[in-house]
Amino acid sequence: DGGARAVRKGSEHLEHWTVRGLSTAASLMTPLNSLLPLFPPIRLRASSSDWFASPKFALPHGSTPVFSWAPQHTDRGSVQASFNLTIWSAVGRVVWSGDAASSQPRMRYPPDAPRLEPGTYVWQVATREADGRISPPSAPSALHVALGHGEWDGVPWLGSASKNVYSTTFDCPAGAVTSVLYICGLGYSRVELNGHVLNTLTTAPWTQYAYVNGFSTLDVKDLLLVGEPNRLVVSLGRGWRDRTAFRILKGDDVASDGKVERVVRAKLVATLSTGDSVALSHTGDGKWHAAAGPTTADSVYNGEEYDARVAERLGDGPHNAISPELWSKAAPLD
Prior knowledge:
Elements: E1 4-9, E2 12-19, E3 22-25, E4 39-46, E5 66-72, E6 80-89, E7 94-100, E8 106-108, E9 119-129, E10 141-145, E11 158-159, E12 165-170, E13 176-186, E14 188-193, E15 196-197, E16 202-203, E17 216-219, E18 230-237, H1 251-257, E19 263-272, E20 277-282, E21 289-291, E22 295-299, E23 303-306, H2 308-314, E24 328-329
Antiparallel strand pairs: 1-2, 2-3, 4-5, 5-8, 6-7, 6-9, 9-10, 11-19, 12-18, 12-21, 13-17, 13-19, 14-15, 14-16, 14-18, 19-20, 21-24, 22-23
């Protein structure tokens, strides 16, 4: 009947269980928990990030991430005895796979393992209990390693004292496995791709802009079009670089920080089914246009002034503008 029965015969007490079709006497039986299947590990993170989750956080170039997970034990007091962890590239090639005898549900990527180059990686983990039971593999999780310094070579800043909207079009090949936009807009930027707003506001981290600038990593794979042009529009604001509100204290800071407050640097990279990475668009490809946008004034403290008539005339680029003459070729900064 699937339940438990106890039978007493004289002074002998014999307990008898029937569990999922397995029937045995307690004196001969393996502990009940060893008959129960393990569940796969959950809550997978790579340095506190899961690229499949939202919001998405990319890891810096050159990272050796810490992988962590939560085993699902079937009884109190069970511990993980070992685990197997496997990492694949975006196109399904094994990058690293290894076993470790450890009760800790975490592992730092080994320093002697292949370097994680910029791109998206998928990983899974399975655990083994001290009693020998092995869990099914976890659901896939992912991590993304952002561009390094060298990948920005040939990608200049675009900027103008009078222009604050930048637009470009590009094609996307069939079979792109991943597509990621890396962008830094100073002091802040609003990014649209094919009419979809990728961010309500991307503010570059508050840094000494003359020396270092952070950039956003945006997953755009599901928004790209194949067989027709893709339209990317970036609107810029002054943010913390507004020198009318934030006075420059040292004269040499003006030169080192740049006299143009609103600037953008961007690169959109796709991984093809062959495993090759290609740049679909970047601010040095000569295809970007600039215009004085509908935001005619903006301030971190005082808000902005917006002219909807200008927005209507501009469209999202010179290809569909009512007044295409308002757009001009965007020139890289020196």
